[in-house]
DNA sequence: GTTGAGCGTT
């Protein structure tokens, strides 16, 4: 039981953060603590996780008390198989406590200028060389991809909107020129619209084939929803029996009902 | 239940 990150950063004034990547989504700070603590004094371990799902994002931050120990852990734990996945340990570049690292300049003492002293790197990481955004943007995980796409949605939408505007100009002109086929013109426009926003279609494909399952009253009745919210149980005024009992013109039915 | 480039909270 570790309370890392539970009470926020304990003291990052003299701590060095290590970024651990490529860790499994099930790896927790408790699993990394013994691993990193073995090589040095771990002050705190923080694993950013989703606030909605609460799942790990796949990387963790390990704070060491001493830079030398952190460096050692990087060399030793970098490339270590954890939970069946090879983790990548490296100094955090961005962060609140990334400054001490720059000041300390842990390595470069005996390390060759060619590269960090990661003689323990069993596998060459192309990411270091191919750090282009194109590379990481080409393939992305599902969970993160969704948010990222959402973020870029404004741009895409703007682009589409503009494009549609231009496209609509000639389309409209042509459609109007035809004139004789009002039906066809409308249909064409309709199709164009669908093709213009394929991702904007209602995320409820089930509703289409089964419109009966979803009552239309709740679909287009925002007013009703408000009322419902105010009166969460308007029909449940009598949970024990049916309120219509007094006005029920079918006494015999009542027997069958209950 | 899935996934796999990256950089963090009270």
Give the helix/strand layout.
Layout: E1 16-21, H1 29-37, E2 42-46, E3 60-64, H2 67-77, E4 81-82, E5 85-86, E6 88-91, H3 98-104, H4 126-129, H5 133-138, H6 142-151, H7 153-178, H8 182-196, H9 216-219, H10 222-230, H11 251-257
Antiparallel strand pairs: 1-3, 1-6, 2-3, 4-5
Helix pairs in contact: 7-8
The structure holds one DNA strand of 10 nucleotides.
GO biological process, one term: RNA splicing
Organism: Protea cynaroides
Biased composition (Polar residues): 247-258
Please tell me what the overall shape is: globular
Mean pLDDT: 57
How would you sum up the major sheet?
4 strands, antiparallel
Cα-to-Cα separation, first versus last residue: 53 Å
Helix content: 40-55%
Number of helices: 11
What attributes characterize this protein structure?
globular; 258 residues; 9% strand; single chain; DNA-binding; disordered C terminus; alpha+beta; 4-stranded antiparallel sheet
């Amino acid at each position: 039981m570790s309370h890392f990150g539970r009470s926020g950063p304990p003291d990052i004034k003299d701590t060095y953060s290590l970024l651990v990547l490529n860790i499994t989504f099930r790896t927790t700070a408790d699993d990394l603590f013994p691993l990193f603590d073995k090589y040095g004094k771990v002050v705190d371990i923080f694993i950013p996780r989703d606030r909605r799902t609460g799942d790990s994002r796949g990387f963790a931050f390990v704070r060491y008390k001493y830079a030398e120990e952190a460096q050692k852990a990087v060399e030793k734990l970098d490339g270590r198989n954890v939970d069946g996945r090879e983790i990548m340990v490296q100094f955090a570049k961005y962060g609140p406590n990334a400054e001490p690292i720059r000041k300390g300049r842990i390595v470069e003492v005996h390390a060759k200028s060619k590269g960090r002293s990661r003689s323990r790197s069993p596998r060459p990481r192309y990411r270091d060389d191919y750090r282009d955004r194109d590379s990481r943007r080409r393939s992305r995980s599902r969970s993160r991809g969704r948010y990222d796409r959402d973020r870029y949605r404004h741009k895409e939408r703007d682009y589409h909107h503009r494009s549609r505007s231009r496209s609509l100009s000639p389309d409209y002109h042509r459609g109007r020129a035809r004139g004789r086929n009002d039906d066809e013109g409308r249909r064409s426009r309709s199709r164009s619209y669908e093709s213009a926003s394929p991702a904007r279609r209602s995320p409820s494909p089930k509703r289409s084939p089964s419109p009966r399952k979803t009552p239309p009253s709740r679909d287009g009745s925002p007013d009703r929803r408000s009322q419902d919210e105010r009166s969460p149980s308007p029909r449940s005024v009598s949970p024990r029996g049916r309120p219509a009992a007094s006005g029920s013109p079918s006494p015999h039915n009542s027997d069958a009902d209950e």
